[in-house]
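Q: Given only this backbone (400 positions), what sequence would you predict?
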């Protein structure tokens, strides 16, 4: 690894430079898209040593690939991890990590507010494999600590949560998890490595959907997992056999997108704060969720553990789904879509985005009302986004 040079640099420098040296060829300044299924060796003994992991190198792209490796090394430097493993999607990263470490008879403690796909693993797949899952209300710290102390193999966290932007105290929960002997895993997708580094707060494994802010352009899928060398060796072994590896072209797109991560996220959170403030004063809005607002119940914890509050805001419309149906089509600078973290602003109700897999009753039980809309704020000019939202609300007012 040539990463030592960048360990002390700022995050905005790391996203540009870190992890790339080993992949550069022919004096190129950019990481190549290494489209080769296999790698060949004239020296049969060298081939064996690389295959056994005793010498650096690549054998077969399901196991490792130079372009994918560059992405993994960049993530390591950003999160302060020993090693990282990249996957075809964020869900492949999450499910593979859970399946690597859980066995029948194990117990998992997590919160009700995890990403919809993760929630399905907890509700549907793990119980079928003999794993007991205990999902606690996200805001009930006392219950969470009691359930963790009752014993668990894995403590699985996510903060800020999707789409209600609740904040968990990472350091406190990681301490409780370690005291119970649990492996502590966190989904860091919403915060990005720029705003939150959970390994420094006692977490063992950090996961990202690279489809979102890391790549940033909504044109590629990917996931990454990082942590200690020993934990990542086990995750990499699972990936090698399960086969959900990232491909070189996708890795290239993620590396390319990551170069501007800091510029994008800083712009997105400046606009997110402006939109949140505007929404607070809008009479047709019942509730605004943004951890950057001093009124947000998790603001103090967020201020402690995050360097910025991120580009996601959500709000509840007073007239529920009827108002959602009118407001969203009126927006000009907006995609109405299920993803987030892109350069374009994206609006979506929880019903068709994060919680499309849930029934109405399940959503209501999670505190997600039909009028809840998530904004993934893009990099457009703040004034344009504000004016756009304002004109859409004016039209909504006229049609009610
Ligand atoms: C999108 C997302 C995922 C899943 O990632 P995919 O790349 O879509 O598989 C996991 N966690 C969070 C918080 C997400 O936003």
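A: Predicted residues:
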């Amino acid at each position: 690894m040539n990463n030592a040079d960048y360990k002390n640099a700022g995050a905005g420098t790391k996203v540009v430079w870190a992890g790339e040296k080993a992949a550069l060829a022919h004096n190129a300044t950019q990481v190549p898209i290494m489209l080769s299924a296999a790698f060949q060796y004239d020296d049969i003994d060298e081939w064996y040593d690389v295959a056994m992991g005793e010498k650096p190198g690549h054998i077969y792209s399901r196991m490792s690939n130079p372009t994918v490796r560059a992405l993994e090394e960049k993530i390591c430097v950003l999160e302060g991890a020993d090693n990282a493993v990249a996957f075809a999607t964020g869900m492949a990263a999450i499910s593979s990590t859970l399946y690597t470490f859980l066995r029948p008879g194990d117990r998992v403690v997590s919160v009700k507010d995890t990403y919809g796909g993760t929630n399905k693993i907890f509700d549907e797949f793990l119980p079928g494999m003999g794993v007991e899952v205990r999902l606690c209300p996200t805001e009930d710290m006392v219950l969470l600590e009691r359930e963790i102390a009752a014993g668990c193999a894995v403590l699985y966290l996510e903060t800020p949560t999707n789409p209600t932007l609740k904040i968990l105290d990472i350091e406190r929960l990681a301490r409780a998890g370690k005291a119970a002997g649990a492996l502590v895993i966190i989904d860091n997708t919403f915060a990005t490595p720029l705003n939150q580094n959970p390994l420094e707060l006692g977490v063992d494994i950090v996961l990202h959907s690279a489809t979102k802010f890391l790549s940033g352009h909504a044109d590629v899928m990917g996931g990454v997992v990082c942590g200690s060398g020993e934990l990542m060796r086990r995750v990499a072994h699972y990936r090698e056999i399960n086969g959900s590896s990232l491909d070189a072209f996708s890795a290239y797109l993620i590396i390319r997108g990551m170069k501007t991560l800091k510029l994008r996220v800083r712009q997105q959170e400046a606009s997110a704060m402006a939109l949140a403030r505007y929404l607070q004063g809008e009479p047709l809005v019942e509730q605004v969720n943004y951890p950057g607002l001093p009124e947000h119940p998790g603001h103090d914890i967020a201020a402690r553990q995050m360097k910025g509050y991120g580009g996601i805001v959500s709000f509840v419309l007073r007239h529920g789904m009827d108002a959602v149906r009118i407001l969203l089509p009126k927006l000009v600078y907006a995609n109405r879509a299920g993803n987030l973290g892109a350069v374009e602003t994206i609006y979506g109700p929880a019903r068709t985005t994060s919680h499309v897999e849930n029934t109405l009753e399940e959503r209501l039980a999670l505190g997600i009302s039909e009028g809840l809309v998530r904004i993934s704020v893009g990099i457009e000019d703040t004034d344009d986004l504000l004016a756009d939202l304002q004109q859409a609300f004016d039209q909504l007012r006229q049609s009610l």
